Amino acid sequence: MLTNQLTAMAEMSDQQLLDLLSKQETHRYGFDLLMRQFQERIYRHVRHLVIYHDDADDIVQNTFIKVWNNLSSFREDSKLYTWIYRIATNEALSHLKSKRLRMFLSLTGLESKLEQGLFDDNFFSGDEIQVKLQQAILKLPDKQRIVFNMRYYNELSYDEMSDVLGTSVGALKASYHIAAKKVEEFVTTH
Q1: Angstrom distance (rounded) from CA 44 to CA 56
Q2: Three-class SS of residue 19?
Q3: Which of 28-42, 86-100, 106-120 tops mean pLDDT?
Q4: Which of 13, 53, 72, 164 is the most exposed place for a label (fewest CB within 10 A)?
Q5: pTM across the whole model
Q6: 107 or 112, which is more confident
Q7: Those residues with Cβ within 8 angstroms of residue 162's Cβ, 6 or more apart along the chain or in another chain
């Protein structure tokens, strides 16, 4: 029993997790470990995109439901985290698009709604600088915002970002550079 608890506390390799997930007797245990290993990082990523805690929780839950339902189709041509990250990113973008359509908002209307969420959400505890940074990031187009968040907050390499987004490393570097300049300009002028 103690060995299982120690294993659960240590981060497992993809192969270890996949071995547990491939056996019927350890499938649920392996999935529980997978969730424990990736859930917090996925939540932070999604939260930076959708701002609201409740929305982020729902998206993370939907992400892991999709992971559970599609584990058999995981081809192992990427890392588990990259695959889960891609699912979460797509879920977050779908959520934002759906929210915009449901509320009959333009892109700037959605941006304003998310910005208001910085002030309304009890789970956001940022100081003035963090609020200003979030406001600047919300002004970015979706693709630039995702790239900026992945690089700035999650410290993903361009290669990892390329695996998640299916975009060339060069394009991602350019997108991040442009996004960083826009964020810097907003923060210094507001």
Answers
A1: 8
A2: helix
A3: 28-42
A4: 72
A5: 0.78
A6: 112
A7: 168, 169, 172
